[in-house]
Amino acid sequence: MLSRLGALLQEAVGAWEPTIDLLEAFVEHWKGITHYYIESTDESTPAKKTDIPWRLKQMLDILVHEERQQAAGEAGPCLEYLLQHKILETLCTLGKAEYPPGMRQQVFQFFSKVLAQVQHPLLHYLNVHRPVQNLLRLGGAPGSLTEKEEVQFTTVLCAKIQQDPALLTYILEGKKTVAQKNASKESTALPGEDKDHPHSKTPDGGPCGAGALTAQLPAETQEPDEGVGENNLITSLVGLCKSKKGRVALKAQENLLLLVSVAPQAAATYLVRSSPCCPAIVKHLCQLYQSLPTFLDPADIAALEGISWRLPSAPSDEGSFPGKEALAAFLGWFDYCDHLVLEAHPVVADALAKAVAEKLFVEILQPQLLHVSEQSVLTSTALLTALLRQLRSPALLGEAVAFLLGSEPWPAAPEDSPRSLCAHLVRHCDHLSDEISIATLRLFEELLQKPHEHIIRSLVLCHLEGRLYAARGSQEPESYEDNLDLEEDPYFTDGLLDAGFQPSAKPHPAPATNSDGKTAVTEIVNSFLCLVPEEAKTSAFLEETGYDTYVHDAYTLFQECSSRVGPWGWPLALTPLDPQEPERPFFEGHFLRMLFDRMSRILEQPYSLNLQVTSVLSRLALFPHPLIHEYLLDPYISLAPGCRSLFSVLVRVIGDLMQRIQRVPQFPGKLLLVRKQLMGHIPGEQLDHQTLLQGVVVLEEFCKELAAIAFVKFPPQGPHLHLPPTPEGHV
Length: 731
Known about the structure:
Layout: H1 2-15, H2 18-39, H3 52-69, H4 77-84, H5 87-97, H6 103-117, H7 126-138, H8 147-163, H9 166-172, H10 174-183, H11 185-188, H12 232-241, H13 246-262, H14 265-273, H15 277-290, H16 298-303, H17 324-343, H18 346-369, H19 374-390, H20 394-405, H21 421-428, H22 434-448, H23 453-464, H24 480-484, H25 490-496, H26 521-529, H27 547-565, H28 590-600, H29 607-621, H30 626-633, H31 646-661, H32 667-678, H33 690-713
Helix pairs in contact: 2-3, 3-6, 5-6, 5-7, 6-8, 7-12, 8-12, 8-13, 9-14, 12-13, 13-17, 14-18, 15-17, 15-18, 17-18, 18-20, 19-22, 22-29, 25-31, 26-33, 27-33, 29-33, 32-33
């Protein structure tokens, strides 16, 4: 009955002058709010317990109802009254005064609802733009009681900007744009306005005509200069991103990401030149880094995976360690910076990437990486590795690569001692501290998995180009003793033969090549599998260490690597050597030299260090470049005098092993015991020659891994290979 009566009453009112009734009601509600401040003497009553929230809601409902009755694009009398009488500015002042208590919250909510529910474009009007800016200044403070309402307000603004990206330019450059408007009134004043008093009268002299609307900002904004504009939206969003309330921070981050992704050219340029956007974001990143504990275990840093800015990791009792919360916050914000660079306008993305590189990489991380304190080097190296693991954006990756490797090629002479950061890091891989060596090797391993060609070219390929490691002007060797010059190696003349080293290590005859000149894959694979002598092998006693596991893993990793380097346009075959070209000195580069030196000491290094060295070499061997394949995986390459390859290094290690075996009583039994300990089959106990025995286990597994990599890089089902059956135990 009551609903029917209400409908009849609305119909009756609509038959007369609904706009007059709406305007009177709108004015009455506004006067009710102003009268409260005149009449009220109680300063302690919260705003939500007064009639202010109800009156604001009625004003909002009237504006929405009025708009539905207006023709599209026309502003009704109530909206004109709101603008002419600067109601939003007055509300903003009341919110700033926070009287009555909680008024700021009510103002934020009213602004949000008006901008969201009134479809007429409002942000172009000065009497909306100005209070919006003032209200933004009130927000963004850490720990504010109105954080929820502030982020809702910025969300509405960002939604409007998403619908009309040009609005971002107006909001950012507000004061400057208005000043430009005043300087050229002919192009900006609305038709019928008095240029000196645009709100004094309407075209027909009435009190609430169209001329009562505030002057609009220009529809077009030129390329921004270095002038000062309005940065309140950016400042507010960055402040809200730091909120301790997870949902508030996440929403603010989403809003900021939206702004930089939809920004037009003019706004993007302004964000870079004249706003605190990039400096504020990077400053917070550096502050989070500086808040980390001085000591963090590299193992804890490496174990904290899966940190995302959308799903930050909350510390839990399981796997907790001192500084975990701070580390998760830092990695989460770095992931957010990386995502911003990935999604932002290219102008903003490049500027933000350069800011991260300058402020975090160069000014903070580099001094710690070069510090004399081993603890500083260890922690910073592990943290840099974690950052590389999270990197996805090409721009930030490019800055990280330039920071680590530089843009210039490495010196080609072994006596050179470059002072670049990369040279220091390579030396750290051969540091007196095994922990620093392992951490830095992990850094390079992570770097090698990044889709940036300069990494592998700077570290390896620039030294292999020209194939100076291969002998010129010589015929194919008749046996692979000629390839390795074993007769000149004291390990083989005095060690191997005297030790009775005959079975597996006996050199194979030179393999046949197919029509493409490629060594048959079976011969290459068997060369690696037979490299370790039978008396030093133990994997055959345990079923879990079969060769097939390495083939499966190597295939997966090779596919990933091939997909990553596919766009780089690498050659498929080697460039033939010119037999008339004179030989020139070859230097494998500081990086490969360090790895080969480490590999030559595999029998005397800690187990964990050996695992990391072989892991980096395996990553290198996976690259589908013919130079890398030849230098690292071809046992039959004819080396130039004084040169070494990975296979020649391994052969010398085997010679050293055969001499050491003679000094270890009950070597086979102890070796099998150590393998079982490493696999967790039996409890670990300290044994004599444990480092040597563990090195032998790693050596055997590494040879199997290299064989598997060679196998998957030249699959037997390929059209260029016709493989004969292999002996049992071989591929």
